[in-house]
Amino acid sequence: MKKPQEIADFDPRVRLLAxxxxxxxxxxxxxxxxxxxxxxxxxxxxxxxxxKLEEQDRxxxxxxxxxxxGELGAPDDSPNRxxxxxxxxxxxxxxxxxxxxxxxASAGPGATSDSERPYDTLGFSQLWLREQGFDPAMxxxxxxxxxxxxxxxxxxxEILVDRTPRALRxxxxxxxxxxxxxxxxxxxxxxxxxxxxxxxxxxAAIEVDAREAEIVGRVVWKGGRL
Length: 226
Fold this sequence. Notes:
The protein is built from seven helices and ten strands. It has helices spanning 4-9, 12-23, 27-33, 40-47, 55-65, 86-93, 126-132; strands at residues 95-106, 111-112, 120-125, 139-145, 158-162, 171-177, 180-188, 193-197, 206-209, 213-223. The longest helix has 12 residues, at 12-23. It is elongated and about 60 Å long. Residues 1-9, 81-92 and 109-114 have low confidence and may be disordered.
C-alpha cells in the first residue's frame, strides 16, 4: 500500500511545482508560456482550478521541462504517455519548446492581433539558452511583418523576444502601442519620451510618450529563409 507522500508525488500539481522550482521558472512565466493569465498555474497548483491541464497546455509544459506528459496528468491512453524510445526521450529532453504566437510585430505601419495563445513551438537547445543567459519561460517567437527594419529584419523573419524585465537600453525591441505591435530600435530621448527608429531609411523615426508605449521585450535572435 502506498504511503500518502508517495501518492502525492504522482500528483501532477506536485510534479509541476517541483519541476518549476528545479528549473527556477516562475509559475507566472510558465502561465505566459502556455498563453494563460499570470495566475493560471498558481491557481491550478494551489486551488485545484482547473482540475486538470488541457492537452495542449500539458504538452507545451512537458516539452519545456523535457518530461513525459504522464508526469503532468496525461491519461493512460495518451499516445505521449508511454511508448517513447529512450533515444527519442533523450533527444527531446535537451530542448526547450518556445511558443510561437499568432501575431506579427510590424516592421511597417503596425500589426494587430486578437489572440496571443500559442499555436506552435520552436525547439531551442537548453544548453544554448543557458549559455546566452535566457530563461525559456520568458521567451516567445513571433513573425516580422513589413520592411521598415530591413536589411536587419526582413518580412517573414522569425524573432525571439525576451520578456525578462530589465532597465531599457538601446536595442531592437517589440513595442505595443494600444493594440498595435511594432518592432523598432528603441532609444530614450529625454524625460518620459521614446524614439522608435526604423532600420530602413525610408521610414522616419517615431517619438512617443513612454507612458503610452509598452516594451514587450527585447529581440535577441532572428531566423528566416535565405
